[in-house]
Amino acid sequence: MSAKKFAFNSPDEAIVAIADRLSVVGVDAECPSCLGRVLSQSVTADRDSPAADVSAMDGYAIRLADLRPGETIPVHGESVPGSPPPAMSEGFIVRIFTGAIVPAEADAVVKREDTEELENAIRFRDVALSTLAGENIRRAGENARSGSTVLPAGVLVNAAHRATMVNFGCYQASVYSPVRVTVITTGDEVGVFADETPQPWQLRNSNQVALASLIEPNPWISIQAVQHARDDRETLQQTLAAALPQSDAILMTGGVSMGDYDYVPDVVRDVGGDVVFHGLPIRPGKPILGAATADGKLILGLPGNPVSAVVGCRRFALPLLAKQSGQTQWCPPSTQVRLQSAGSKTLPLHWMRIVKMVAAGVAEPVFSQGSGDLVSLGQSSGFVEVPAGESGEGPWAYYPW
């Protein structure tokens, strides 16, 4: 199959095309545990940040009129974080600590190291005499004004976001519902599970476990079911049709090529899926199929070979599910790594080359016997994407497992 026969020239083109057809999931009401979930509404500041003028340094709150060389200036009181500031008496200065509120009468804060400290008094060193109004003071609202947006909708909430939210009194938030995903593996040869011993012609269902393991750690995804269907068109159609009402996305493996038992393309159409692409210029995983239903649900058909299935899930399923989850940054820039011992081989396809990281920003290829080689897959930490017709050390986009 030549590159001209593909509907899209790159994975990114295909991902964007199908993403435009997908709907965002619904919304959960106020969620007290929103870590790892996606904000459906913005978070606003309930007060200025900082809430008052505070000191950026340990030192002394002063009036500029008290900046006199050689004179001893008495210290009266101190301002500490978590307490209201003392009033400044005329002719006196106030000792102050980082984060403490600056007395209203003060013009600036002089750093402690710019003074000569005496008992209950200080003298200014020469460097302090050039202090300007407002120096070493963080003004009220300079981080954010009350009522302003501090986190927009579409943010995938992490620990840093939680800190911001709590700082502004947001202990629970409105979030998008988890994306409901069903995993369906296919194939008469893939029917051996944990409590069974395979015959030489049979395979254990590693795809079922691998795909679930890739998506399950994300709290914004909910796995509705993990199923297996044999190579029978009617059975497969019934399985897919039954899964659609309870799913926002369905991930399938196997049955997407051109063989006599590859029913997935026809069955996807039978249940109302509009096929956006079937076949992309990638290796492994060229027969991949992407479809969207009229109500914006995703059906992604991945090849049955284990490496192809896992690569396709990581490269295509995860960003598309993120799009459905309501994330605004659903397809963030990939990490770039250099490939050690890359060789000079080129492909007319985008090469998803499994690698292992060997140093910061450096990976090396993992020798593989092909897309069915689960031994090499287990030795890898991810894959790099080498564009069609290119070779060498890169840097290339890196996708960790």
UniProtKB/TrEMBL annotation:
It catalyses: adenylyl-molybdopterin + molybdate = Mo-molybdopterin + AMP + H(+). Its cofactor is Mg(2+). Pathway: Cofactor biosynthesis; molybdopterin biosynthesis. It comes from the Bacteria. Pfam families: MoCF_biosynth, MoeA_N. The keyword Transferase applies. Residues 182-323 form the MoaB/Mog domain. Its EC number is 2.10.1.1. CDD domains: MoeA (cd00887). Keywords: Magnesium, Metal-binding, Molybdenum, Molybdenum cofactor biosynthesis, Transferase. SUPFAM superfamilies: MoeA C-terminal domain-like, MoeA N-terminal region -like, Molybdenum cofactor biosynthesis proteins. The keyword Ligase does not apply. Catalyzes the insertion of molybdate into adenylated molybdopterin with the concomitant release of AMP. Belongs to the MoeA family. This is Molybdopterin molybdenumtransferase. It comes from Novipirellula rosea.
